[in-house]
Known about the structure:
Structural class of chain A: mainly alpha
CATH topology of the largest domain in chain B: Rossmann fold
CATH architecture of the largest domain in chain B: 3-Layer(aba) Sandwich
Structural class of chain B: alpha/beta
Helix content of chain A: over 70%
Number of helices of chain A: 14
Low-confidence stretches of chain B: none
Helix content of chain B: 40-55%
Number of domains of chain B: 2
CATH class of the largest domain in chain B: Alpha Beta
Radius of gyration of chain B: 24 Å
Number of helices of chain B: 14
CATH superfamily of the largest domain in chain B: Response regulator
Mean pLDDT of chain A: 90
Shape of chain A: globular
Shape of chain B: globular
Radius of gyration of chain A: 19 Å
Strand content of chain A: under 5%
Low-confidence stretches of chain A: none
Number of strands of chain A: 2
Mean pLDDT of chain B: 91
Oligomer: heterodimer
Strand order of the largest sheet of chain B: 7-6-8-9-10-14-15
Strand order of the largest sheet of chain A: 1-2
Distance between the termini of chain A: 19 Å
Distance between the termini of chain B: 84 Å
Number of strands of chain B: 15
Amino acid sequence: MMNNIKGQYIGWIVFFIVFMSLAFLNPTEHTINIASKILVMGLFATAFNLLFGTTGLLSFGHALFFGLGAYITGMVVKSYGAEVFIPMVFLGGIISAIVSILLGFLCLRLTGVYFTMLTLAFAQLVWGITIKWYNFTGGDDGIQGIERPPLFDTFSSYYILILIVVFISMLLIYIVRSSPFGMVLRGIGQNPKRITFLGMNVYRHCLFAYVISAFFSAIAGGLFAGIDGSIHPNLFFWTQSGGVILMTILGGLNSFFGPLIGATIFIILEDVVIRQTEYWSFVIGVIMLSAVIFLPKGVISLLDFIQRLRKT
Amino acid sequence: MFKKHFLVLGLVAVIVLLSFSVSMAAEVIKIGALYPMTGRAGLYGKDSEAAIKIALDEVNAKGLVKGKYKLDVIITDDQSKPDYAVSVAKRYITSDKVKFLFGVISSAVGLAVTEVSKDYKVIFIGTDHAATDLTAHKFQRYYFRVSNNTYQSMFAGAMYLKDMPGWKKIAYIGPDYAYGRDQWLELRYGLDKLGVKYEIVGEFWPKLYEPDYTSYITAIIRAKPDILVAGFWGGDTVAFIKQAKAYGLFEKMKYFHPDAGGNYELFAAMGDELPDGLILSARHHNNWPPTKENKAFVDKFYKATGRYPSYAAQGAYAGILFIAQAIEKVGNPNDTEALVKALEGMKLKLPEDPEGFTSYIDPKTHQIVQMQAIGVTEKNDKFPPAKKMLGNFKVYPADKLMPTDEYVELLKKTKK
């Protein structure tokens, strides 16, 4: 346990130093663009994993919250100007949290594949509405030219904003995860009946985790709207939900930093491989497949492996 | 001793020659292209890639500005995803230092990339995407389009319908997204402008990539239109025509598909099965105009790839030629503002220009102005595997097809 805590400590330091130093190493705009996406998707995956990695409830509709965050920020900034950007990111989180309470009432009564399918259905529903409601959402053309907030309007200063928000958000998620509440969640994942016998309400705990997860997913979505200033209905699409599941499993769902590592690998791979070959989807597929087969506990399990090697 | 001198002299000569050839080597101007290479639109990306290569070979053979410059194109699969395309476009500009953005099939991707072009002041040559918006209310001065937009083809369509006798009732079927919706809006606008009286008996909106059109087909037959207007593209056209044929739809009404109906891949996919008498058009036809330029282009493409091009190839080919001509005229690929000025109003003889007409770029909207030809399917096996092609073409003059200011205002009001 002690060792584990120390490990997490190092994780935070490495995380902060790596992403902070990027800002000072005179990076190219492309590097910052990729790093921004890694941070945002990393937060999204970490938020998603608050539910999946502890209780084992697999939501296949988390794109709904990510998309909501992006669209609330994007649409309001487009109408009222960049001054409202940062408040809108948080408003997006709050609206998503409210939506997730409503959805949680319906979905969390179910478990297993039924929960997964129902979350997928709701996300697809919102995707359908977004893509068709031209006058309101811009339809499948999406929204372009979303301005970044004042003070953070260059790509590098916006990166700093992302880094700060993501760092604080992840810290909060970490606190939730390691609190007694988080322990109960993990207990639910292992044996929900026993938690009930201990006199705790499984449903209410899951709902609370779902709401927190939705809140931070939307924060990630809101930040995403400012990276390229361009958002589209495919942020709500099931492939977006699928992507975040893949990142989480690739990185390692049992570890806190696993999803962030998964997001990092995923985004860098996509950037590098597509540049090289037309058959990128095949190459990425093979890499993902081998990662899942040979590292079933995620890429992060490599670290444990190295640690064990050093001990022996 | 003498031998040694000879050696040194030889060495010096080699060095001098080498440095001479280095200084003579042309500077490479990079163009960053985005095309879908996978999925349903992948064929258009592949055909564009092949056409780009043909154009580059032609341009680089003699070099630009007396051999000072050469063009090179980097192509990335945009996956038809706007957000992904934006990040590639930014990478092109900031890391790869491209001087031009290029290509794009999907209009949603085009709308996203034009914002990047505007922000970074890098010229974006659109070769295929058809949304009128880009050269209307979403216009920005670094954007140029070298293929026609849906307004141009639908207005030509409206002119065709005006001259067609004996119809009154009309129905529309098209994919339920911006492209499908725009075509119907533009056709009706055109018919109204031309004072054509018509009655709409049905509008049908299947989703894009719909596999089964049965319910739509029976509903269309029940609605009894004289003309069915269609706004599909690619595999959807093939699927719809195959299924509608089984229900005898084409004996009951005229099928009219003026934007992308006449794409070559339809003829290649359906062969003999394709009904006669369908009224179709496309952005480029392999057998029209019957000029030597068009024949040369189609033959070159066939020689390079072993297949005939879909319409997308000609747009990509035209795009490279426009860039080359602009650099030639300005003499400096780094002077973006001068290049924009040069491209405005630029004339260029393209494969799809009939005798006596030269395509040009409208200086006000940066939209290429071209003739539109609408034809009817008939037997023609000169472009295998197609067994039928378009014939009996009617041609519509380019200057009549440009969106009016009034229409641009309408777009501004109805679309954000």
